Amino acid sequence: MAENQTDATPEPTAEEISAAEISEQKAVRLAKRERLIAASDDPAFGAYPVRLPITATIPEVRDRFVGLGVDEASGEQVGLAGRVVFSRNTGKLCFATLQSGDGSRIQAMVSLAEVGEESLAAWKEFVDLGDHVFVAGEVITSRRGELSIMVKEWRIASKAILPLPNLHNELSEEMRVRSRYLDLISREQARRNVIDRAKVNASLRRTFDGLGFIEVETPMLQVMHGGASARPFVTHSNAFDTELYLRIAPELYLKRAVVGGIERVYEINRNFRNEGADSTHSPEFAMLEAYEAYGDYTTIADLTQQLIQDAAIAVSGSHVVTWADGTEFDLGGDWARISMYESLSQAVGEKITSSTPIERLKQIADDAGIEVDHPLAGKYVEELWEHHVKSGLTRPTFVMDFPLDTSPLVREHRSIPGVVEKWDLYIRGFELATGYSELVDPVVQRERFVEQAKLAAGGDPEAMRLDEEFLRALEFGMPPSGGMGMGIDRLLMALTGLGIRETILFPLVK
């Protein structure tokens, strides 16, 4: 089966090729691999050489020779490598487009006059779409002005055994997620996502470094899950013969660091929650948490706004980001801060406070068709707020002052009874980050843990356990602090307008 492609016969997508056809093409390519190896006395040549005499990359050559005129020779020789993403073979001249990992492309021209009859015939026989090839020769431009390499020497750098999908047709979302390597080869946005994520992480670290924060690492395997209300993954350690939990949050360990004197501390790492997966949730996700001694939930909100705005500049050059669909979204200025209880009261047309009886909250929920079955009044307040208020938030907004009974690690509000000093940040209609004035009184913290333990005993899988080691650390004295947590994947969603499976390089799929 012929492998060399022309403009008139583009290679079909992987979905369009039947299993039999793929198997046939694979057999053809495997046979070429065998012939390549058998024909070569030099083990460094073959189908997979160890090293090649590369002197430049495709992006470097494109930048260096950007001013070269039409049908002009530079007089300079380079050796570079790339993946063949287009191939056209004629009698005495073959054309190939080589693509680098960042998506940059350059044309390779293999002519009878430059490489000779035997080498040209070998190119036609062995080189297929998807192969990585090394070419060396003079940098020129074609009669159409296309930057090219007039090849004097070439080698196959790595033989592709399976055919690439047609790069002119967009992959299905399912294939993009399951075969991210094909997505990266074929789609600029996929490559951009990886680069943007790296820029965001670098920006976060720069901002923290400039403010005197120290980055640490805390355990992912824990003997007790805590730091958030979430269902954990459970595993077993053979070495210790004990049940362990994959981390749902680094909070309790980072607070230990604050007790120990690391007064500005943060971590960027992986968390795992054994819960649902949708457009904004993934069972495995990247998380940022930070704690600032002698701060509170207002100073940590200021920090969070700065972190996100700095990340926007790193990605887009300004506070105005452009999403994948072309929408511009402004992250600049000072973001609104609204009260959860006051905004809910306005939405339902009656005063809702921390003293509103749970029976009345249930009635309001029933009237709105909201199904809530929970013993805590605060859970009804939060569900009602999400139903009535959340969808109306278009600009970045800090939602302040949450119910006490749903926030066991948060300091009670300094002036409003039954409320804690906590905010959630909403951007694009989803929760991006949360921040607290931290609860540092070990006596009150123990009382909160006891209440959580009662919920756990009653069957609540998300309730926290009583963590004696953490309480012991608090008993040595933790300074008043502000703390925050933010999903890195969700931050990329806010900056790019994409769903969570697009912002994670290799998301978990069934």
Describe this structure in words.
With about 500 residues, this protein is of the alpha+beta class. It has two domains: about 25-160, OB fold (Dihydrolipoamide Acetyltransferase, E2P), CATH 2.40.50.140; about 185-335 and about 395-505, Bira Bifunctional Protein, Domain 2 (BirA Bifunctional Protein, domain 2, 2-Layer Sandwich), CATH 3.30.930. About 35% of the residues lie in helices and about 25% in strands. It has 16 helices and 18 strands. Helix 13 (about 440-455) runs antiparallel to helix 14. The relative contact order is 0.10. Residues about 1-10 have low confidence and may be disordered.
Task: Give unreliable regions as ranges.
Answer: 1-9
The shape is elongated
What is the CATH homologous superfamily assignment of the largest domain? Bira Bifunctional Protein, Domain 2
Largest sheet: 8 strands, mixed
Strand line-up of the largest beta sheet: 6-10-11-18-17-16-15-14
Structural class of the secondary elements? alpha+beta
What is the CATH topology classification name of the largest domain? BirA Bifunctional Protein, domain 2
What is the helical fraction, as a range of percent? Answer: 25-40%
The averaged pLDDT comes out at 90
- List the domain count as a whole number: 2
Figure out the total of helices: 16
State the separation between the terminal residues, measured CA to CA.
Answer: 34 Å
Count of β-strands:
18
CATH class of the largest domain: Alpha Beta
Query: Which band does the percent of strand residues land in?
Result: 15-25%
Gyration radius from CA atoms, angstroms? 29 Å
CATH architecture annotation of the largest domain: 2-Layer Sandwich
